[in-house]
Amino acid sequence: MSLAISARFARRELRGGLRGFRIFLACLTLGVAAIAGVGSVRSAIQAGLADQGAILLGGDAQAEFTYRFASEEELAWLEGISTALSEITDFRSMAVVDTEAGSERGLTQIKSVDDAYPLLGEMVLDPPMPLAQALDGAEHPGAVMAPVLADRLGLAPGDSFRLGTQDFTLSATIVTEPDDAGDGFGLGPRTLVRTSALDGSGLLAPGSLYETEYRMLLPEGADLDALKAQAEERFRDTGIRWRDARNGAPGVARFVDRLGSFLVLVGLSGLAVGGIGVSAAVRSYLARKTPVIATLRTLGASRSVIFQTYFLQIGALSLLGIALGLILGAGVPLIFAPLITQSLPIPVLFTLYPGPLAEAAIYGVLTALLFTLWPLARTEEVRAAALFRDALDSARALPATRYLIATALLIALLVGVAMLFSGDPRITLWTAGGILGALLILAVAATGIRALARRATGAARGRPVWRWALGAIGGPRETAASVVLSLGLGLSVLAAIGQIDGNLRAAINRDLPEIAPSYFFVDIQPGQIDGYLARLEGDEAVSRVDTAPMLRGVITEINGVDAQQVAGDHWVVRGDRGITYAAQPDARTIITEGEWWPEDYDGPPQISFAREEAEEIGLALGDEITFNVLGRDITATITSFRDVDFSTAGIGFVMTLNPAALQGAPHTFISTVYAEPEAEAQILRDLASSYPNITAIRVKDAIDRVAELLEGVGSAIRWGAAATLLTGFLVLIGAAAAGEGARTYEAAVLKTLGASRARILQSFALRSALLGAGAGVVALGAGILGGWAISRFIMETEFTVMWPSALGIIAGGVIATLLAGLGFAWRSLSARPARVLRARE
């Protein structure tokens, strides 16, 4: 019965329109729209990858080998299950162009193909021609190349260049490569040639770093799961790796999924900021409804009727805000679909996706419940005797115990849902802890700012503008808490992201070049290593040369169990890894646990594993690791752990074995060279001339390539943070609008006492600036703390405060509060004192 009465009261209250709830709706709408929009774009990309998986992969399925081509038995089986088969090799090398001034060299990712390539999709070239014609050539075999590499080397169609010891003629540049997204990340632009043209080039010698991929078209209705199981069972000991069209571009899919999850968490931060605005709007609305509530209590309405009345009213408005957010979040990606599709190098299918919309709706409902429950609970404290008094302002700070318990449960439910949807519980918990910690810091800071303002009021005697501003900040009716919480949380998110972004840039652009090698050389044949070292060791410009033998292998089992069942999706068991051997550790090796094998050890294989990666996987001394090298399974026992620092861009291996374990296996050497910058070009010319098969990777170029990728990630995250800050600014506007009546009354009193409009405006501006500066300083502290924690414990980079970004945050706080505060000051100043004071009476 009480619910029916409450519903009738709520319906009548809603007849008054949306007055007082515009900011409420805007905050909720924007937060839900951000999450729905990010989720919709992510789903569109995932759908595009799934729909075009076969084209991205280059076939219905693919078998991949490292260091070798398929054996006759493997090839016969692959041909037997497919209707068409194409063989591709993929590796890095140097493209060399001879000019009158010398030789120009550029790192390139080479794809060599057969006549069947591509099985799916179309290779588009400039000038237009069939791929087979482009690869025929005339005097030399033909090749096609990415435009950026051709421009860098000064090549035009018809010009010649060299790969290893083989000359090629550039026939065209690549406009579209159908399977480029499925090939993953490469350090150099693409060059495509025929595999047969590489005979005698020295680039595919035994032990060289290359991969072969056999792409297949399968019969209609082929059982992909059965074929995968059959391949892995039949060739378990040969190192075959199977992929099919259901996961055509795994690296892209994984990256999109993780970036999308992180952006949703940034969106949750925006919802938290919006939640503060929602709470402030509800509290302001209910404060205006105090006479109505008190009247209802006088007429006999129970506490439950009062609570249910406003719960239903605000619940209906929350559903409206969530619905608007869903419409916006689903509609904006559809509107901008052509632009997004054009800017992405992968297929995207835009349509309405219920999943992300349902996820955003759940977030919106939980946020609305969480942030409206507290002010709604305080309506129960309005008594009939408090008729026409400001009962909500005089009520106790904490609501009844049952509401505190409900609030705690809602927080736990919201965090649990976020962990479920994000797919990364660790980052979710960090984000949730950061938001809660920032809110706690900001709430304490708001109380401290008010107390400090009250203390400073006495010291401002003789300075009326300062005294009025400080008195207003410290007064009971000032919106200091709302301003500090809303603006502070938005600025905290932006400050944390600014600090993380700045430290990542510093690590790439400043720290790494100071300690990183000049070049990383790969594919040095065993017969070339002595001559290679002889060239470098006598050069005074070379400060250090490190070399190590290297093979590549796939970890297949840990203690007899499938490696991916034990280690999950850890990067060490995902794909092939570099492996080396050493009789004794070098001087820089730090063994943290266990013992190294004797120098002349010739017993069962032993392995030294990287400590940090072992801890992440859960390995212990005595565990057995089985890995496949060139089709041969090797099982080794872990006898030691050691520190490996991959951040230096030097040589680092997760696995090091005793030499006898890899005896007879074909391998090459890798090397890092630390040299003076002015000597780098000559070193490269000399080594490339003597050993054309060697590939040189300039570390600074690789770092720049990674920096480009991080810039794109950073831009996406900064846009998410900007949306959070926009929500915070909306909350500021709401707080300023809610306090307009108080400022009008204050201005009327001050005018009556003789204050000029200019001085009153200065007081309002000073009040806003002080609150903005306070919020900015506190947000900066919270953001620096959050940035340090994420940099230190998640990204594992050194942390330094980025002061330009930090000072910008404080300035942003001052400007935002000034704009919001002064935007509502003019009407307060223009009101006539007599009318205002008479209405107050």
TrEMBL record:
<feature type="transmembrane region" description="Helical">
    <location>
        <begin position="307"/>
        <end position="340"/>
    </location>
</feature>
<feature type="transmembrane region" description="Helical">
    <location>
        <begin position="400"/>
        <end position="421"/>
    </location>
</feature>
<feature type="transmembrane region" description="Helical">
    <location>
        <begin position="802"/>
        <end position="826"/>
    </location>
</feature>
<dbReference type="GO" id="GO:0005886">
    <property type="term" value="C:plasma membrane"/>
</dbReference>
<feature type="domain" description="ABC3 transporter permease C-terminal">
    <location>
        <begin position="266"/>
        <end position="378"/>
    </location>
</feature>
<feature type="transmembrane region" description="Helical">
    <location>
        <begin position="262"/>
        <end position="286"/>
    </location>
</feature>
<protein>
    <submittedName>
        <fullName>ABC transporter, permease protein</fullName>
    </submittedName>
</protein>
<feature type="transmembrane region" description="Helical">
    <location>
        <begin position="769"/>
        <end position="790"/>
    </location>
</feature>
<feature type="transmembrane region" description="Helical">
    <location>
        <begin position="360"/>
        <end position="379"/>
    </location>
</feature>
<dbReference type="InterPro" id="IPR038766">
    <property type="entry name" value="Membrane_comp_ABC_pdt"/>
</dbReference>
<feature type="transmembrane region" description="Helical">
    <location>
        <begin position="427"/>
        <end position="453"/>
    </location>
</feature>
<feature type="domain" description="ABC3 transporter permease C-terminal">
    <location>
        <begin position="723"/>
        <end position="830"/>
    </location>
</feature>
<keyword id="KW-1003">Cell membrane</keyword>
<keyword id="KW-0472">Membrane</keyword>
<dbReference type="InterPro" id="IPR003838">
    <property type="entry name" value="ABC3_permease_C"/>
</dbReference>
<keyword id="KW-1133">Transmembrane helix</keyword>
<keyword id="KW-0812">Transmembrane</keyword>
<dbReference type="Pfam" id="PF02687">
    <property type="entry name" value="FtsX"/>
</dbReference>
